Every structure is written in structure tokens, then in C-alpha cells.
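Predict the holo structure. Ligand: pyridoxal-5'-phosphate.
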Amino acid sequence: MTDVIGGQESQSSRYRQIAEQIKQAIHTGTLPPDSRLPSVRTLATQYNVSLTTALKTLRTLEDEHYAVARPKSGFFVAPRLQEKHSLAVINEQPRNIAPLDEQTELHLAMLGSDCRVRLDLANGDSALYPVKKIGLLMRQMGYSKPALLGNTVKGTGYALLKTEIARRAVDYGCNISADDILITNGCIEAISLSLRATLKPGDIVAVESPCYFVLLQMLHNLNLRVIEVEAGQEGYVNVEKLTGLFRRKAVQAFLTICNINNPLGKSIPNEQKAYIARQADENDVVIVEDDIFGDTAFGERRPFPMRAFSPNAILCSGFSKTVAPGMRIGWVHSVNYMRKIASLKYTSTMGTSMLSQAAIAELLRSGGYDAHLRKLRRELASQITKMRQAVLQEFPAGTRVSEPEGGYVLWVEMPLKALNVRSLFLKARNAGIGIAPGHIFATDHRFDHCFRLNAGFGWNAEVEQAIRQLAQWCQQSLTDTQD
Ligand SMILES: Cc1ncc(COP(=O)(O)O)c(C=O)c1O
């Protein structure tokens, strides 16, 4: 979370920087709940700013519910942050994941049905993808290589596609053999196979929190338990807490979206990835990584996966977010578990459509993929920026919004307790607006004041109006909690 709404000044304002430092100290516990914050005068002297700026810093912290002003005593860390803080401290008791509640079912049903304003998914309009080119390639290849359709699917995938995936992996720090790749029906199958190959029912998996809800439900269905490790201020998992779990042998695996996380949109920096990978190896923790958004990173360099730092990490990815969501082409790479993964694949879905694989292989081989990716990233970055600006402008003071480094989604966080996301979800649904409600990203209530928005379907009057409408409902909810 980088931007908190409220106030006219730019992000770079001095008072914001100081407020961020204080928030950091609150989050890490250096400034515990109820402790006294520096006075206006002390702050002004310490940071070499005017009294007005110092006061504005404290008022900002107050507006954002980090601080409370006590008459004649000054400013104190808000007591109710204790509650928030305690949520940020991981609960080391592994949790069973509840089956889908009615609302999550509704959410998933909505994902599968038509919806007027599509802010609930994590992908985009078909215009974003090279579907015409892929369609043409499939037609040509269907004619010229009838065996692609006429033969039984054998082995672990289309050889050329596996070669192309291995070739591209060198660019992001992974020297992998095509023999250690298996093509799946989407990235989700790749993750499911990896977890089944490496874990047994009852095992405990560390996940980033908030956690993409499909992964939570997958863990539930595999009878695995979970420990949720919340993200720190930087927007990625708290590395010390995570590796502490490894060292205490509290988990058997770490399931991570370490690049362009869904929903927070951040990537774990390389040094931290290297550290996590080393700690996992030293403590026999299996890393399963979901790198489906890696290729959508907006920056100059594509972020490295965990696999770049350990040969033991199992890397799962695919083309649903970059080429064509409807093709369902994913893949998994593992050095240690490929035989087990292949056997599980054979006895579940047996194989993956060869024609689809061949078309994607040709797109990768011809260089068309890189040109397409450059365009896709540009468009996504522009769409995310527009939606983010609209949220910053329309939503009530105290709302926070993520600043993604890639991908499709924004994570919106209202002030604690100011939103019942379940009722917002229902209101929105009745108005034909899909959102992903925060509570489905956790095993408890910690994200009941949050929701995820998808910017992938472009920016137009209908989306703009939907954002305005959501903002009004959130404002109403805020006013009701303050009354
Ligand atoms: C993090 C993450 N992993 C995997 C998937 C699904 O991948 P696939 O459609 O290739 O199975 C999604 C879809 O939204 C996702 O957000």
C-alpha cells in the first residue's frame, strides 16, 4: 500500500514521508499501541520541518486511524491498531480452511456468469490478447499437422513448447531442462499437481496473506492446513516471520505468488527471494511458486522466480494471463518431483490439447510473443493507472489502494471496520458490478474491509461510473460506522 487517500498534496510531500516512517514503526511494534507519539515540536526538530508540516503529519496519522489525539496530552498510537497489529502477527496455529461459504460460492458463480461491469476477475478483455493470430495458427496447424488432433496425446507435452519455455526461462535466471517441464491444463492444474506430489493430507502450508482465494480453496480440497503470513508495509510477505516458520519446522511447504502477487501486485525483491529459498532448502520446506503474472511485470526487467535461487523450487506458470485465458495452457517445472507429477497428471487429465500447445509454441518461436507482451504490459499499466487514479479521487479519506508492479488488479483497503464487504459485494452484484470481496482472501475476518478490483477490461464510462458508485457505497458505510 503506498497511497492513502485524503489531502491535496503529492505523494512525495514531506509530511507523507514522515507519516510513512511512523507507520512503519507502528507496524513493526517499535511504537506499540497506546504509546505516545512525538510532539509537534519534537517532530519538527527531528525531521527539520515546520510546525505546520509536523502537525499535518500527526493529523494524517489520525485521519488514517494510526493515531488518536488526546486533549492536552498530544497524539498516541491508536489502541485499535493493536487489533490490526495482532492480525499482522501470524497465527502460528495452522488453520483448517473452511469450505466455501455461501457468499464465496456466489462470487465464484458470478465469475462464471455474465456481469455488466467485470471488476471481479484477474484478466482482461479479449482485445488484449493475440486471439486472432492464435486462431489463425490453430487453423493452419490443424490442416498441416492433422496428428495434432488425430493422435492420442502422449507424454508430458508438445516438445517444441517445452523447448521454448526452457529457452525463455534463461532470461529470468532459470537454467532448466525441457525434460523437467510438463504441460498442464492451466496454471491451476500445475499447482494442484505440485502440491499433491509433495505433500500429504494434514500437512501445513505457509501462504502469503491476503492469498488468492482459489489457492486457499485448493488447499482445503487437498486436506492441507495453512498458516497465513501477512505482507509487510512493502506489500510482500514478511520474510522474517515466514523463514521463522521454516526454522521452527512449523510448515512443510510455502505456496507463493512471489512475482506480481494476486492480489497485492508486488514482487518479492531478489535478495529476499534468495534468502527465502536458502532457508527453505536448509529446513526441507518445499517451495511451490505460481508465476502466472511474471510476464506482465511493468518494469524494464521481468522479475526472477524463486527457482532462479534454488533448483528445488517447483515453478508453475502458463499463458492464461498473457496469450489467451480460454486456451488453458499452463506448465510445471520440477527437478525433483517430475515423475510423480507426470504420474498424477496421467491419472487425472491424462494430457493437454496438442493443437493449443503447438499454436503457443509457434507464437513463442516466431518472436510474436515478445512484441505482444510489450503492448500488453503498456496497456495494463495504463488501465491500472487510470483506475487507481479514479479510486484515489473518488473514495473516502483513509482508503488505501495498492500500487501494483504488474498484472491486472488493485487491492482496496477501507479504514478498519468501516466496511462490511459482504454487503458491498451484494449491492454491487445486484447492480451488475462484480468485485472480489476481501474476506475470500483469508481464513478469517482480517480482510472484511477490503476488496479487489480488476482493471483488465479497460477504462470507459461504465467502469468510471461503477467506481463512483462503489465509492459512494463505501462513503455511506464509513459515515454509518462513524455515527
Ligand atoms: C495467481 C493466479 N494463479 C493462477 C490463476 C489461474 O491460472 P490458469 O487460468 O492458467 O489456471 C489465476 C487466475 O486468476 C491467478 O490469479
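The two ends are 27 Å apart (CA to CA). Residues 368-394 form the longest helix (27 residues).
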